[in-house]
Amino acid sequence: MAQPNVNGSKLAKIKIPLPPVGEQEKIVAHLDSLSGKIKKLQEYQKSTALDFISLEQSILSHSIGSTGSLQVNSGQAKSFQ
């Protein structure tokens, strides 16, 4: 959407202050460090989710067993039909 009285030549004349190169390098290093930490956290989250799924499946497998019936504490089986 066009803006009245704003064009490319006016925008080209706008000066945007930048920090010195040394400061820019520090910013990049900090952002790279944060990016690495985010990636590690994402990997940990994925691993934890997979562990949870595996645990959930294991609990169900041990609870239901090969009979297809839920084993309750009393040792009696309840069938799901």
Order of helices and strands: HHEE
Give the amount of beta strand, in percent.
5-15%
The rough form would be described as elongated
Give the oligomer, counting copies of the same chain as homo and different chains as hetero.
single chain
**What integer is the average pLDDT?**
86
The biggest sheet, with number of strands, parallel, antiparallel or mixed sense and barrel status, is:
2 strands, antiparallel
Please state how the strands of the largest beta sheet are arranged side by side.
1-2
Q: What tags apply to this protein structure?
A:
81 residues; 7% strand; mainly alpha; 2 helices; elongated; single chain
Summary?
By secondary structure, this protein is mostly helical.
Q: Could you please describe the fold and organization of this structure?
A:
There is one protein chain. The chain has about 80 residues and is mainly alpha-helical. The protein has a domain at about 20-45. It has helices spanning about 10, 20-65, and strands at about 70, 75-80. A two-stranded antiparallel ribbon has the order 1-2. A hairpin with a 5-residue loop joins β1 (about 70) and β2. The radius of gyration is 30 Å and the shape is elongated.
Topology, pairings included?
Blueprint: H1 8-12, H2 21-64, E1 69-71, E2 77-79
